[in-house]
């Protein structure tokens, strides 16, 4: 059964999210061995895997649910990327383990956002006396760095064209959430950052940059340069919530779409944002005979209606919106089995707009004090949403 808080939280997240162009969250991979199915002659999966040492893949790349940011339910697992003395690729002296996006999507055009979270642990700590290049483009117009050659630097740093624009102490087991805002057309980059479960905030930029990418030269992973005081042993770096989006920046660390682990899931932002047709609301558990909240979204209106369920079902509900006033909505209800499609099935029930509505206390400019009642109209929800976001 959908509670109002869960539905509204999911709707707010979806309403503020962009469109995922490339999804690198590892949700469809059983283990890191799946990465080895990729080759230049067989370009399958979300990543190209060819920059690594001579050992087996589990020496350099491993997946697990404990490797992700716990605040990100949109990812079912994260990745641990390891470098050691064997991580020398193609005869180079650098230590490197890197993954490259495998996609034909336009991740190198217009304004896009490269998302990821990163941390280290108390074990296999990176050496601070070697320069590390992290999550970088081939031309290094934007990247993270750690360490320094010839000296010690324990800060995680954001660089633009080789110049540090931001840094913070890298502490074991603290997640740093990052979005590179890259305007390939305008030639600028901006840095968004937060820690833990906190929402991203604009931290530095925009800065002019020589934004250049062929769409297959962003390196998720670590390259460590040799130095005069090289550390020994393995180093582990953890990444979570990796994806590229366009449109509106998703500032929530809880990445769009969901991993399927939650019993209550509201449709992915890639399908829901600013549509004028319908939003699919699905539950992976059976809904007992009672009323259940259904979200209706359009380009101009949002509403919640109470819809009686005929029996214990997990319903995938398609809700066409008749007009901006939502005079009525038609709710086809699925059969007793779990349905993952938005196609109308079984019977339908028409819910008139005469559902009782309480008057909200929200008003433009109310900010975080805005209150939404249990039942509300489309216009009242829009007013409340704008008030929460501080918009007139």
Automatic annotation (TrEMBL):
Residues 1-17 form the signal peptide. The keyword Hydrolase does not apply. Residues 20-248 form the Glycoside hydrolase 131 catalytic N-terminal domain. It comes from the Eukaryota. Transmembrane segments: none annotated. Keywords: Signal. PANTHER family: GH131_N DOMAIN-CONTAINING PROTEIN, GLYCOSIDE HYDROLASE 131 CATALYTIC N-TERMINAL DOMAIN-CONTAINING PROTEIN. This is Glycoside hydrolase 131 catalytic N-terminal domain-containing protein. It comes from Neocucurbitaria cava.
